[in-house]
Amino acid sequence: MVRRTVLPGGVRVLSEAMPGLRSATIGFWVGVGSRDETTGHHGSTHFLEHLLFKGTTRRSAMDIATAFDRVGGESNAVTGKEHTCYYARVLDEDLPMAVDVLCDMVTGARLDAGDVENERGVILEELAMNDDDPADVVHERFAELVLGQHPLGRPIGGTPETIRAVGRDSIAAHYAEHYQAPGLVVTVAGGVDHDRVCELVSESLARSGWKLDADHAPYGRRDVSDPEREEVSPAEDGTPHRLVVVNRSTEQANVVVGTTSLVATDPRRYAMSVLNAVLGGGMSSRLFQEIREQRGLAYSVYSFASGYSDSGYFGLYAGCTPARVDEVIALMVAELRRLAADGVPEEELHRAHGQLAGGLVLGLEDTGSRMSRLGKAELVHGEYLGMDKALDRIRSVTAEEVRALAADLASRPLSLAVVGPFDEDRPFRVS
Amino acid sequence: MVRRTVLPGGVRVLSEAMPGLRSATIGFWVGVGSRDETTGHHGSTHFLEHLLFKGTTRRSAMDIATAFDRVGGESNAVTGKEHTCYYARVLDEDLPMAVDVLCDMVTGARLDAGDVENERGVILEELAMNDDDPADVVHERFAELVLGQHPLGRPIGGTPETIRAVGRDSIAAHYAEHYQAPGLVVTVAGGVDHDRVCELVSESLARSGWKLDADHAPYGRRDVSDPEREEVSPAEDGTPHRLVVVNRSTEQANVVVGTTSLVATDPRRYAMSVLNAVLGGGMSSRLFQEIREQRGLAYSVYSFASGYSDSGYFGLYAGCTPARVDEVIALMVAELRRLAADGVPEEELHRAHGQLAGGLVLGLEDTGSRMSRLGKAELVHGEYLGMDKALDRIRSVTAEEVRALAADLASRPLSLAVVGPFDEDRPFRVS
Fold first, then answer.
1. Residue ranges per domain, chain B?
2. Looking at domain B241-420, does it have CATH number 3.30.700.10?
3. Strand order in A242-247's β-sheet?
4. Residue-wise pLDDT tens digits, A83-117
5. What share of chain B is helix, strand, coil (3-state, %, to 5)?
6. Which of A65, B29, B290, B405 is the most buried (most CB within 10 A)?
7. B354 in contact with chain A, both atoms CB, cutoff 8 A
8. Which among B71, B288, B320 is the nearest to A125, CB-wise?
9. Which of residues 295-334 of B touch A (CB under 8 A)?
10. Cα separation of B380 and A156, whole Å?
């Protein structure tokens, strides 16, 4: 059962009790992500996430690390394009500690100047590690490419240049602006009691220096669409509308081809899930069967969709031998177009329904995925959908809805990102 | 509660019922891994693992894929150095299907010649993908280096050369030799009943063509130690005893430094777990604190230990900027030597006890980790240790045992593997 409480100051607490479990996962969500950064501060949201582990007015970095390690808990954080989440998985008896430490990190960050310099080095190493992963690079470059000048297109972690440039003061300003009670959402799932969680969060907030005025309403997402977002029209000649080729001396070519897609709240998002399952969501999907099973051209091949508050994108990924890259791109695009033209037979549609429904039910046993569902319900969708309703929405997606969505996507200009041993001016085609 | 039954023919079934869960993870384990391959067939165990998904005498590859996809199940397989495991996570109502499909794959593989050629391409792409991941490369090269000519040192997947060379017949011979009833172990954890699992496995085996003579005893591991294994003595001059440098135009240097270590059944393996937690097992560990928190030299830094039936290795990993690689190697080795010289204070020891104990208890809620514990108990340790006993063994590890083990490791010749933008004859030191 899911319960929701708004505490004084506007802090929202959502919990889901899972009887019989001895563990809980708790997340402290802040509704700010890389898209909310202004020019010159790119990467500061992620930088701040790192710094919250470096100490508070009450705790050193070592205190934070030992608090979780001594009980075998897992704690970490993730910075997204529209939110940041600090989380921990612990035994139920350690939940009071987890609430207190996470709350202290979020409300009382020290942001020491020396720590900023040390952590700058760590983040530069993280960026370098990601840059050494060609699959990571192709996804980042595809997002930049397909969203053009939109702030959602930027890489979450910033770039080495922006990380070297960002100052302690602008990170502190970012913290002061966004980390406030009306922007905080706490979600918990596992062996927990809602009233007790609210009590723990209230106690920890009372120890913080945060303003907890009773009349604050929770923050919604601000409208931060970039007015300069570049509108594009489809190319007619078979070249991708946007193309980026990154030359790397890798064994494989890594490619992503795709288009803009649905916002997170689009009612067609259930049709998108089905489309994604059919096209590239499992071993029986069309991309897997056609490109891997029938032709042996790739080990990893799949489709994906990401939706945000005012934009989104959809892509097809493959890693393949460089000599066959044109063939693989053509096969992937052909599968999207075939789905748009011919739709999906009933049997395949029902398989996709079953795949999504089974996956949803299997996910119920994991405290982390439930904690995450609660956070996204609050921050992204603005509504919590019970399991029965979610299953209904999946099962009510029709073949025609999938075909129409595929046709919509296939009619948009295609962007293509390629990482591999190619000249950066090598031509590529998508038809 | 864990129950174990030996079915006619020697097939072993182990199950652990987790009341209240609606899902189950089931694994079919075969006690054969890459170490068991003979020269000229390297990579054939992993090749075979791929081919088992390509179809049986009763099912096509698409039948296998759709069986799991239509219920939202997850199925996959993993080839190790000493065992291979085919597994699936499904809702309890789908367990009969999962048993039947996995059993059919393991007992009735078609090994079609055309499928072998297609899958050869897929595996070459998998190897290419791994080769494009410098962290993967440094771990593979370290294992080769530290174990010398020992068959455990070889990469599990083979090399592009051995994969191109291996023929359908030698894969089929490998299958016929190792995939037999006395070598099969089935483990299940979740919402299951032991007697029902035994019934399902028996029914599926009866449909197979396998010999199920009642007088077969389960296979133990054969003695396959390489008599030509190279014995080495420590170098005296500060150069690592063995060194490999792989030149790659990466942003980061990836390094692993380490030694041979304990076999899987060594009674000191609990001390090794504690040593590993203290040195490089979490955010409060010495490597993390010294190299990441204090100096900002790395994003990813940790220690690891792998034990097998007759050998094992222990290593320290970091990814860092190439200009600081010598400093990072020196810092890592200094931490190992400091632990060997000064041991571990009581408070830090107790933190490590708590970390391992908490992690063990948290892992109990995951059907996959319980399924895996059962398989390893049967195939690796030859005994199943209940949770209370496992916790006791962890908590009884003393500071002196950890120090003595660190001293043992620090006295062995150190091997060093480096991947990054370095000449392959660049000198490296470990002291």
1. 2-208, 241-420
2. no
3. A242-247, A415-420, A253-260, A312-320, A298-307
4. 999 999 999 999 999 999 999 999 999 999 999 99
5. 45, 20, 35
6. B29
7. yes
8. B320
9. 295-300, 319-321
10. 43
Q: Is there a contact between B72 and A356 if contact means CB atoms under 8 Å apart?
A: yes
**CA–CA distance, A282 with A289 (Å, rounded to integer):** 9
Tokens of A272: 């998108």
pTM: 0.95
pLDDT tens for B46-81 read 999 999 999 999 999 999 999 999 999 999 999 999
CB-closest option in B20, B126, B292 to A20: B20
pLDDT for the residue A147: 93
C-alpha B61 chain-centroid distance: 26
* Residues in chain A within 8 Å Cβ distance of B128: 251-252, 319, 321
Q: Rounded to whole angstroms, what are the CA distances from A153 to A93, A133, B50, B68?
A: 42, 19, 37, 35
pLDDT, tens only, A167-202: 999 899 999 999 999 999 999 999 999 999 999 999
- Report which residue type is found at B255: V
Binned at pLDDT 50, 70 and 90, residue B228 comes out as low
Domains A2-208 and A241-420 share a fold: yes
Q: Which of A16, A37, A49, A82 is catalytic?
A: A49
Cβ burial, residue A355 (10 Å; 0-12/13-18/19+): buried
The reply to whether residue A70 touches residue B360, judged by beta carbons under 8 angstroms, is no
CATH class of the domain comprising B2-208 = alpha beta
Q: Which tokens is B2 given?
A: 């864990």
